[in-house]
Amino acid sequence: MQVTVVTPSFNGMRYLDECIKSVQIQRSEHVDVEHIIVDGGSTDGTVEFARQRGCTVMTGKDEGIFDAINKGSFAAQGELLGFLGCDDILLPGALARVVQGYARGGRRWVVGGIRWIDGHGTPRGDLAAPPSWITVPMSAALGWNCIMHMATYVNSELFRELGGFRKEMKYAGDYEFFLRALAIEPFARIGRTLACFRLHGDNQSMSIAPKYRAELDEVERQFGPSREWKKQYHRYLLKCWLNVTNPTWFVCKGVDALRTPHKLIHG
Description:
The chain is an alpha/beta fold.
């Protein structure tokens, strides 16, 4: 099966080599990998390096991360689409597990777990895929996206059916997209850690910018429960499940919240 990994980039050379290597080692007799780098105008050699490493590179101005991902995804050849940042990495054997879960689960999208790492690659705890019983209102009530994009793979036909990501959303586009997917059908849950999400201080998704807050509020209004008590119930239930089933991650995010109070630490 062919799997396409789409990576948006802009001056991402710091971690790009590790990212590309982590995708290339996924190739096997059962998994063919296409890695598309969608670059928004890098000046640090990202484009030249990615081409030398055998990636398909698309260049040109874009309207943000989710517009870039859309461009790569709509041009992809793979039956499954995945989304990986320049600073993130896939763990060995991840795509083999994705393909197995996809074939076995009978769903058009699959979700696995991630490992938080710091800028030096030190583990900061694993966050497992959300429970298979999660619902759209429950996920929206949580207030942050626990379906992590670097461990989620979507059938290309489903991606087109959904129209891709909303490119006008600059922060919560993945959150909104996965809720629309969940409204159509459940995902197949993979009980393995598939990718590493690198926390290095400049992550857009960890910012508490007013625009990010506004997008989260929009997601909640569109998909969340209409009554406050339902919102609090769903949020408490899912939050407890995530914290109890991911103890190391729970402790690490608490420590990180004390160290970096200006950042958005999920949980």
